[in-house]
# Entry
Amino acid sequence: MAWVFGVGENKIGHSFTLSGEGTLPKQFIAEYWNACAPKLDGWTFYASRQPSDNVRKFSLKLDGEHTFEPQELWLHLWIDDQSEKIDVTAWHPLYEKISDREKWTSLFLLFDEALGEHGSQNWIGEIKVADNALRESVPIWELPEFIDETAKSRGWKKHKPTDTYTSYSVKKQYEGFRGDVFVGTARYWSLIRDVMNTHVQVEHPCPKMGVDFVSVVFPSEILPKGQEVDFRATIEDEIITSFEKNRGGDTLGGATGTKNTYSDFIIYDSKESIQQIREILKRHGLPKETTIQYLTQDKANIVHRL
# Structure
């Protein structure tokens, strides 16, 4: 028997790209839950929905009178070497009779069924639906093999969405929250991007689920010249090691600014995790100006000092 910790999300429209941005914070939480799962005989726990081998062995009952048969779904596939993804145009004989919402909902359910949650996010690029049958199309159960062969022949490699970092740079600084940042990396890019775009803390992406997003902020002037990256990395590594002992949190990347340096974290036990961070910062002799700030609006007024 298997138990899956995971959350899915569907979008409606005429074309769509499976970015997974809305589900990413919940995927971090699912990974945390999975790490806390007990060892039980006969049970396997997963942090995301896994691919299945029964794509053609079931049907979907849609709103109203229609039944969506997966074996009647055909996909025309394009290889996008630049993004290392597969663009898809889908056709099903029911598309002339059902609503757009039903088209997209059934399609995304089948992608998750055939590829799993991470497979859908990692390998599927732009998605379109067609009104007519397409030449050179394949049934959906051939999609996993097509992706495997394409990835191997082109040397594509993918990581879990929660293990992927985005590097970014900012040409113009501004007054406001993190306004001095000019370069950084982000494991949860959409959160940091929204902060940079709005110049303030942002709405919590998953409130009341026991998770917080914080940033350690200290003056950039204390960084040893020529060892700026190593200095921050040493502190971050020690915090991560401390978190691993009691599953208190994980790194989300960081940034360098003209005034301050930032180390970002996701934490699962706010009080205890904050205390762990403070103790490590004190051991490294960081100045009293160092703070721990929340990245979300619900705790925007809370600032922890050394």
Notes: Residues 173 and 179 are 5 Å apart (CA to CA). The longest strand covers residues 249-257. Residues 1-17 have pLDDT under 50 and may be disordered.
